Request: fold
Amino acid sequence: MTITRDSLLTLEAYAKIRKTDKPAVIAHRRLRSVHLGEHITLQFEDEQTIRRQIQEMLHIEKIFDEDGIQGEIDAYAPLVPDGSNWKATMLIEYPDPNERKRELSRLIGVEDRMFVEVEGHARVYAIADEDLDRENEEKTSSVHFLRFELPPAACQAVRAGAGVRLGCDHTNYPAHMAIPADTLASLAGDLR
Reply:
């Protein structure tokens, strides 16, 4: 299903369900989040997470005109996986501002060293920050947008139940782990 103007709730309708819907939204977001080590979290997006993000932006900004609504759809719709990939928001989190500044300077390029490895298939590295200019010689951003483009055989393997590892082979943040089964089951639904 694609997100269109007609598929979104009106501001009034969204305001009515916003609070009561929140626990389910948080549970879905938690299911699709993977913590890699202590400081990196990947939030795997899907149509549901992006639809909620668009509705939130329209609500917060009080956007109700056609052009404004289409602008939000155009900004966020590219983050919905399209059948052969996973798309994720990568957050680099250090609570202390001084440590964050120091570590972001040590982690330049970390977004390009993120990978998924489907059991029995070659490692697939993330394509990071498409359509965004994030080049910074001094530090990396604390937020990146990643796309993992999986070959058809890897997609089939995931749908058939193959395990998947998430990892990073950046010199200053080596980490890898198996994606938990419940999260992987949700991610398998993104592939066709």
About this structure: The two ends are 13 Å apart (CA to CA).
